[in-house]
Amino acid sequence: MSTVLPLLEPQPLAHRAQRRAHENNKLAKRLRHQVGRAIADFGMIEDGDKVMVCLSGGKDSYTMLDILLQLQQKAPVKFELVAVNLDQKQPDFPEHVLPEYLKSIGVPYHIIEQDTYSVVTRVVPEGKTMCSLCSRLRRGALYTYAEENGFTKIALGHHRDDLVATFFLNLFFHAKLAGMPPKLLSDDGKHVVIRPLAYVREDDIAAYADAKGFPIIPCNLCGSQENLQRKQVKKMMDAWERDTPGRIETIARSLGDIRPSQLGDPKLFDFLALGRNGDAPMPDAHAWLAGEPHAQDAP
To answer: Quick one: which of 101, 53, 62, 106 has its CA closest to 210?
Structure first.
């Protein structure tokens, strides 16, 4: 009588699955550490905060919500998380995806319905980029909802690469050294915006989202516009990272190590007082530009 033994999974497959699980755990731990450090470094979340987690349906906001939920369980302070999505009424937008996902993980949520899509497509000429107007309308809707519902913080899913790209956009196209801060106060002074993913690489977010199987919703409104300035900057950054791995991380760290005396903004550093000869009068810019004669040369 022969005995039939159960088929065993080939060792190489089991080993790969085990290794993949190990790498995913390492990635999750790294993301929790980076998000936790950003929260601590910038005081993003305090005891009693009610945080509006802006969920777009993209990999970044899904990852942000997921990591914040994990940190919430062991955080030294108590805070509330509510996922909020703005349904901009884009054609073919799958309205069921986010509610079904958020219900499945037991997260409180709200869907704001506002037809910004029709406004943007009506106002912006065909072929022009829609991002600026779309962002303003989206920001206005989110700020209004946050104010009406007592949110103390608004969490956005911008990551490290977004912060670096914004710096270069301002440098190349707007002639200023400015970026996208990890924490800011809105122009009207009513809202504190936080970016918990400020230290997280986009590649890590993509890998994490893939491992978690988030139901990604693509943006068909602006995502199809290939000639955006931001996409040009991203191509440049990708090329840099291929040629010199680690360059983007170095640039990101430099954004947190500003040396005003090594730049050229007299509003940030008192260059006029530097090396001044005693009580000598301060230079008169108008006189220099007008070419007025020196006092000793006057008749």
So the answer is: 62
Q: What are phi and psi of 243, to 5 degrees?
A: -75, -40
Is residue 222 marked as binding?
A: yes
- 131 known member of a binding site: yes
Indicate the length of the chain as a whole number. Answer: 299
Burial of 275 (0-12, 13-18, 19+ CB in 10 A): exposed
- Structural domain spans, the chain: 21-262
Q: How far apart are CA 292 and CA 85, in angstroms?
A: 62
3-state SS assignment for residue 274: coil
pLDDT tens-digit profile of 201-250? 999 999 999 999 999 998 665 544 545 788 889 999 999 999 999 999 99
Query: Please, which residues have CB within 8 angstroms of residue 118's CB and are 6 or more apart in sequence?
Result: 89
Cα–Cα dist 93/19, whole Å: 37
pLDDT digits (tens, 9 = 90+) for 135-181: 778 888 899 999 999 999 999 999 999 999 999 999 999 999 999 99
- DSSP sequence for 212-235: HT------TTTTT-TT-HHHHHHH
CATH of 21-262, one of 3.40.50.720, 2.30.29.30, 3.40.640.10, 3.40.50.620: 3.40.50.620
pTM, two decimals, is 0.84
